[in-house]
Specification:
346 residues; mainly alpha
């Protein structure tokens, strides 16, 4: 079977999802199985646009690092991001020890969920700033010559001629947030947002530095290896974490079972990563001209949604989850229609 065949790409994800579902059904019955399915769908819908952006980065990596993305990366996504990271956040915000937080999560999941929701401003500020900067970086680029939303994207592209414009915009956003959010959370919001910005800038600079260094040593390469690939790999993990925050918090509104949340979101994350590989191997980004644009608009919008939450304005889960799907579906439709129009003129 060809490596591009969907069965080969999605087969392992399907098998693991079914096996975990059988285990959940055996332990928690039909109710637990239904919640598990809902959580899988929640993760997929929240991270669909993430897969599109991931595919562009993954396409630059060597086969070894692509394999790392699917093996070590999925362990990082399930265990570190969806289990350890929320525990760490509760530790920081509640001032509790590691053992206390683990006991709280296992013995009193409702209280743990409450503590995690109390940490939402920190999470939303970090994730919102990181995602907003990803979207901004894509559109505020003076070298960008393909535009989907013509006038708007051309205007943003011209802004790229201003030196350090991305950092200026983000510092203004952080300053506005600091001056306008609830007084008791101002410091946490400012620090978390700046950490999101610094992490994005640092990983981007690290990847660019090592990529140029490798090219100077061995010439132009088609695929990233070494430290350049490692920096891109870590960028993918942080991007995944930023997308997962909303999913983790939303999952606690559905169930308080930490193990069930890990199972559902973990299986969903596996499907998202398989879809990323599918996009890479089939060259889907090249087939649909505006797919990448739609994904970045979705990421920009999700970043805004997370930042707006700091003002206690909560969008419904169905809206946030479907936001990426709407942008991507519209971008794909635009790509197909434009391609047909050009072919008809020939």
């Amino acid at each position: 079977m060809h490596k591009h065949h969907p069965v080969r790409i999605f087969g392992i994800s399907a098998l693991i999802t079914v096996l975990v579902g059988v285990l959940v059904g055996w332990l928690d019955g039909l109710t637990g199985l239904w919640i598990y399915c809902v959580l899988v769908l929640l993760e997929v819908t929240f991270s669909f646009d993430n897969a599109v952006v991931n595919s562009k980065i993954l396409n630059r990596l060597s086969d070894f690092w692509q394999t790392m993305f699917l093996t070590i990366g999925i362990f990082f996504a399930v265990f570190v991001v969806r289990f350890l990271l929320p525990l760490f956040i509760v530790m920081i915000t509640a001032g509790m020890g590691a053992g206390e937080v683990v006991d709280l999560a296992v013995q009193s999941p409702e209280e743990y969920s409450h503590r995690l929701h109390e940490a939402a401003p920190l999470i939303d500020s970090f994730g919102g700033a990181f995602l907003f900067l990803i979207g901004l970086s894509y559109f505020v680029d003076r070298n960008k010559d393909v535009h989907w939303l013509k006038k708007l994207e051309k205007g943003l592209s011209r802004l790229g001629e201003i030196r350090f414009i991305k950092l200026i915009v983000m510092l203004v956003v952080m300053a506005v947030l600091y001056l306008t959010v609830d007084e008791h959370s101002r410091s946490a919001v400012a620090i978390a947002g700046l950490l999101g910005v610094l992490l994005h800038v640092g990983l981007e600079a690290m990847s660019s530095f090592f990529e140029k260094r490798e090219r100077n040593v061995v010439g132009i390469k088609k695929k990233q290896v070494g430290m350049a690939a490692f920096a891109s790999f870590m960028y993918l993990q942080v991007l995944d974490a930023s997308f997962s925050f909303d999913g983790v918090i939303g999952a606690f509104a559905i169930t308080s079972s930490l193990l069930l949340i890990m199972a559902g979101l973990g299986a969903g994350a596996l499907w998202v990563r398989s879809f990323t590989v599918y996009l890479v191997r089939t060259g889907t980004l090249a087939k649909y001209k505006y797919l990448e644009h739609g994904a970045h608009w979705a990421i920009l919008a999700l970043g805004v949604v997370m930042l707006v939450k700091l003002y206690h304005i909560e969008a419904p889960e169905w809206f946030t989850g479907s936001l990426g799907l709407i942008f991507i579906a519209t971008a794909v439709t635009s790509s197909v229609l434009e391609k047909r129009s050009l072919e008809a003129k020939k």
